[in-house]
Amino acid sequence: MTDTQNMPAVLDMLCPMYVMINRTGHITHVGPTLRKLRPEMAWGGARFLEVFALKRPRAVTSVTDLRDHAGIKLHLQLRDAPATELKGVAVKCGAEDALIVNLSFGISVVDGVQTYDLTHADFAPTDLATEMLYLVEAKSTAMEAWRKLNLRLQGAKIAAEEQAFTDTLTGLKNRRAVDHVMARALQRDSQFALMQLDLDFFKRVNDTLGHAAGDHVLQTVARIMVDETRSEDTVARLGGDEFVIVLPGVRDAAALRRIGSRMIKRLEMPIPFEGRECCISASIGTVFFEPGSGANMRTLLDDVDVALYASKRTGRGRQTFYNEDLRQTTDAPAHAHTGDTNRKAVIMRPVPE
Amino acid sequence: MHGLIYRALQCFVTDSYGPDRWIEVAMVADLGLVEFEAMLMYDDAIAPRLIAAVGAVLGRSEPDLMEDVGTYLVSHPNTEGLRRLMRFGGVTFVELLHSLDDLPDRARLAVSDLNLPHIELREYSSSHFSVICGTSIPRFGHVMMGLLRTMADDYGALALLEFQGGAKGTETVSITLVETEFAKGRSFALGARAS
């Protein structure tokens, strides 16, 4: 290289963040953008290694070392605050042992541009710095849109769960569905039967064989109940081991008795789980809704509860049809009202088919 | 078509005319929804119906309306991010014009499934250009005209833009640059962030 006189002007355009260093390690020229990082500093004549600390490679401690590491990626940092980190590469230039070190912000370009208020014009037209800044902004904007979408979807998911009519463990309907079905039937004043079924000895299964066994039992029970009812019936799990069945248009006690006893019989068959057997039974309370009776949701649920309680009290594994006499019994549930007639409870034992 | 495009129309109506007018538009266009999600895809067939509905509800012609959408996209405070992304295209308005060919690629870099219509700049002299663009977004030429007119202001350049008509799936906007440094323009710092 014989003619290097216009070299600074060329480099100012091609790589405006370079430093030219002479044989003794003093700065002779600085690119316009690099100058912007320390506009007040007297660059000319300053020692390169007093302005920049070389972080890597660590072996470089003198300008001779720097010359030996020409062509290798350098990690540098400005010594005074703000201690901006820079990437660089040194190349030997000319016959006089001069060095050119070209610098860039590397990955810190976003911070660098903010800290020193740089513009398009501070980067060479071929430099990808502005493209990188564009991408950072574009991607942040897109990411924010995704984040908002996710928040909205999460909100929608919670709302959907709140409005759901399904019990997730068993796939049966849930309490909200029962309320909905009964409210509609009551509104239309159309006849239906309501069965409430509580598992007996379920707690024992849960306690001795664990929750996985308990869940398996609940799912098996659900399947049996669906099997034993019609498609137009609503089978629901209210929570825990409590179930309810709404049977529209059913007023035949004998038919209900058959359904109840068949269900209990099947539930009493041991349910295998991981080599063990889960033994449960079920108690059922049943009530009819007759159009024009004036019964409402609250009284029906209360009546069915009284009937269920009677089944439990008289030895479990039974179905009891509600009548007002059941309320006369001494240990009726606290919330059950006391009736005024004195007929005997009709208690059904499971009838073998 | 990308939800961002539909969402832009929704935000234009909501920010400029209020949410009630948008709900009216959604009903007239029989969208079956009220909110477009910016990051989901929607049927292309919705676009012409939606634009017609916005025009009908606001009592505006479609070309005027879509030009306003272009202006809105780079001037409303809610879309400051987009203005900034446009300013990354160049230091001057002319540089921005020269970067338009890359605009669809730039958009794809940001959101990989966002497909903008093809855009091509033709340069007849240092002050006379035309922008030819595809119409995969209906009336895209008018959107570009509003957008570029506003960006000229943004750079402080004085430019005359005229819609030259369209044919065979393209629309053309002519641009005559009267003065590059007519006014101060709006500030743009590379390192600032749109909030």
TrEMBL record, chain A:
InterPro entries: DGC-Regulatory_Protein, GGDEF_dom, HNOB_dom_associated_sf, Nucleotide_cyclase, Rev_trsase/Diguanyl_cyclase. Gene3D superfamilies: 3.30.70.270, Haem NO binding associated domain (3.30.450.260). Residues 190-324 form the GGDEF domain. It comes from the Bacteria. PROSITE patterns: GGDEF. Pfam families: GGDEF. NCBIfam families: GGDEF. PANTHER family: DIGUANYLATE CYCLASE DGCT-RELATED, GGDEF DOMAIN-CONTAINING PROTEIN. This is GGDEF domain-containing protein. It comes from Pseudosulfitobacter koreensis. The lineage of its organism: Bacteria, Pseudomonadati, Pseudomonadota, Alphaproteobacteria, Rhodobacterales.
From TrEMBL, chain B:
InterPro entries: H-NOX_domain_sf, Heme_NO-bd, NO_sig/Golgi_transp_ligand-bd. It comes from the Bacteria. Residues 2-155 form the Heme NO-binding domain. PANTHER family: GUANYLATE CYCLASE SOLUBLE SUBUNIT BETA-2 (PTHR45655), SOLUBLE GUANYLATE CYCLASE GCY-32-RELATED (PTHR45655:SF13). This is Heme NO-binding domain-containing protein. It comes from Pseudosulfitobacter koreensis. The lineage of its organism: Bacteria, Pseudomonadati, Pseudomonadota, Alphaproteobacteria, Rhodobacterales.
